[in-house]
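Example pasted here:
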Amino acid sequence: MICLVAQYLESIVKVDFIVRKSDAYRQAEFSRRVLLELPGFRLWVVSREDLILSKLVWAKDSGSELQLRDVKNLLSGDTDRKYLDEWAGRLTVTGLLKECLDG
């Protein structure tokens, strides 16, 4: 299992758990997870790039503006653009990634 989202609100932590699938992208995503240490516990979370890619896939499938807004916010931090570009192409979300980077 991998944590896809961890949001912090004062003293509340929201975590979504997603069961790892066996396709090549999900295997890569799982291998790039990051250990997060919070007061009283530790957990593995998805990398920023993989969260971006997952949100792009969800936006492609659902047309969700919320997911695209989240992606734009996530892109404001440091990201591995080579990794993003490679997997965006393989996941057929290059257009959405470009839209988020340009907007």
Q: What stands out?
A: Residues 1-7 have pLDDT under 50 and may be disordered. The chain has one domain: 2-102. DSSP finds five helices and four strands in the chain. The beta strands are 2-9, 12-18, 34-38, 41-45.
